[in-house]
Amino acid sequence: MSVLRPLDKQPGLNTATILLVGTEDALLQQLADSMLKEDCASELKVHLARSLPLPSNVNRPRIDLIVFVVNLHSKYSLRNVEESLRHVDATFFLGKVGFLATGAGRESHCSVHRNTIVRLAHTYRSPLLFCDLEGTLLHIPEFEPRCILRPCRAGIFSPLLRMKKHVQEAGRLAQ
Amino acid sequence: MDSYDTPESTPRHSASSRLKDYFIGATPLQKRLESVRKQTSFIPTPPRRKIPQCSQLQEDNDPQKVAFLLHKQWTLYSLTPLYKFSYTNLKEYSRLLSAFIAAEKQKGLAVEVGEDFNIKVTFSTLLGMKGTQRDPEAFLVQILSKSQLPSENREHKVLWTGWFCCIFGDSLLETVSEDFTCVPLFLANGAETNTAIVGTWFQKTFDCYFSPLAINAFNLSWMAAMWTACKMDQYMAATEFLWSVPCSPQSLDISYAIHPEDAKALWDSVHKTPGEVTQEEVDLFMDCLYSHFHRHFKIHLSATRLVRVSTAVASAHTDGKIKILCHKYLIGVLAYLTELAIFQID
């Protein structure tokens, strides 16, 4: 069972599980911490993984949202995400996947061109957020309307929009 | 799905043709706004295609005259267009700049330990340093010291050199009006204090703005690929890369040197389309180097930051320092740097 499928398990009662995938351990940890600090109506579980596929011998709840984190300063993190994307079922991309790109603020350190990650997110029809650990959240405005234009997936998008707030929070904590 | 698309596309199509008619008589400012609007459109741009720089030198470019530009380390800056700059007033500009430098030195802002030299400034044009006929002429500014001793009356020691050029700057040239001279690339060699003084004078006189041009790892890997692609008769230097590993106490530097003929052989095996370099080829070239290194040392170089690239054609550092070693590909190297400078201005 190396491919992640969105509906292969029963949903947990009043729980949402988010999976963060990326090579940037510090950032994933900070994002997860700030997400868990926030009050929410249902219980939130955050899983962290360096890459997919996830080990199959572990009993884990159903994943509701996957966020792939790419560091624009490191080509390695992009390759890692590209490899991991192959282990996700196509139906996951109907609103349950998001991309987060860090490091766009420091243009002089970028090894990955911004357009590469934009094209990747566009190929997978998933929203892309740019953020920096230093606390600024850079928006690519073209993606904003796409988030809103999928009202049927509002239940899934609220964790994603909340994630946006957590990114800002994580950034502020990092300062 | 298709039936939804067609009614959307026709009003957009007629709108764009109306927009085109509007812009035929547009002012340069409107043209610039239109180009900025085009850049922020949603569709991600296709992979870039660049032509590797073979000897596209202008005929009147005398190798001897530009020899002093080679083998020197230049610090790069990008420069916004100069307002009301005239090539006929160069003598006037030299006089004004000399006076300004003398005044600054008197103010004590640039204190030089040692003898108090008499400073002479010269402005001169560099013929042949352009990509197309439309590019403005490149010009050179030099700060020379006039020795006090009568025996050495003729000798002028060059203290500082700076030159301005624009190679294939069409994308910038078409958006500015007649009053502006576009020389977006500025290269300086010499004391930092002198660069600052000259920069201040230019900013005051021509209402322009200098900013340091940093070269990120993405562009450095493009440079590595393009310069390795250049055909050389003999290789003067090895192809070297320097990576900086982000570590907590002190950053670690990894240096990787390859025999230039091996690098060229690797490039030839990767290169498909003649005369063009594509993003895929650059990525493949760098990935081959990374995987070779990983096989031997188990270190993922792709997780580190490329800081310096050095080939027989030129060497570049991420802080915006460049050294051009080969006269044949001088224009080619400058063309890419001009593009980076224009991109930074935009």
From TrEMBL, chain B:
Coiled coil: none annotated. Signal peptide: none annotated. It comes from the Eukaryota. It is found in: Chromosome, Centromere; Nucleus. The keyword Nucleus applies. One of its GO terms (cellular component) is nucleus. Keywords: Centromere, Chromosome, Nucleus. It holds the Pfam family CENP-L. InterPro entries: CENP-L (IPR025204). Belongs to the CENP-L/IML3 family. This is Centromere protein L. The lineage of its organism: Eukaryota, Metazoa, Chordata, Craniata, Vertebrata.
